[in-house]
Amino acid sequence: MKLQRKALKHYLDYTFKRELKSAAWEVLGDDIEDMSVELNPDTDQKENILGQIRTSDKGYKPSISADPYYADPEKKIYPKIREIAMDRLRGDKCKTYMLEVIVEDTSAAKQLAYVQEVMVKPQSYGGDTEGVDFPFNILEDGERIKGYVTSESLNTGSPVFTEGAIEAA
């Protein structure tokens, strides 16, 4: 059975304190019908004089576009998105953590998760009659840490990330 899109969740630490132990997560996705991690693979192919093709793999430059992101003062991350855009913040003031969780087995006690420092950059603001829109991009900016969250913490809406492997049952 294929996974439904809701099995992959992306959270941002809305405190922007850049302290993983005190991260407070808010899930992204309200009003968004399609959101993907664009891996942006950085590869280059060259053919030498012998007719052989050599591929150079320089890795990935992942990004996510959260578009639309309608202004909602009840959302905990909204004030920071607004501040970054309206005050034209740059650099470390735009950095926080992102938590990615993929739920492959709803009966499992622990779910695979990754956490990583990211930069959040609004692309515009304004919008149409749907509402005030602050679409933003999320750019990876640090080491990716593999771990897990408990299903119980996911169900409460406050996932708790633990670094390390999920032990086999």
Polypeptide structure, described:
There is one protein chain. With 169 residues, this protein is mainly beta. The chain has one domain. It is built from two helices and ten strands. The protein has helices at 78-86, 151-156; strands at 8-13, 25-27, 37-38, 41-47, 53-60, 63-66, 95-102, 110-122, 136-150, 161-163. The strands form two sheets. Strands 1, 2, 3, 6, 7, 8, 9 and 10 form an eight-stranded antiparallel sheet that branches. The protein is globular and about 65 Å long.
Layout of SSEs?
Blueprint: E1 8-13, E2 25-27, E3 37-38, E4 41-47, E5 53-60, E6 63-66, H1 78-86, E7 95-102, E8 110-122, E9 136-150, H2 151-156, E10 161-163
Antiparallel strand pairs: 1-2, 1-7, 3-6, 4-5, 6-9, 7-8, 8-9, 9-10
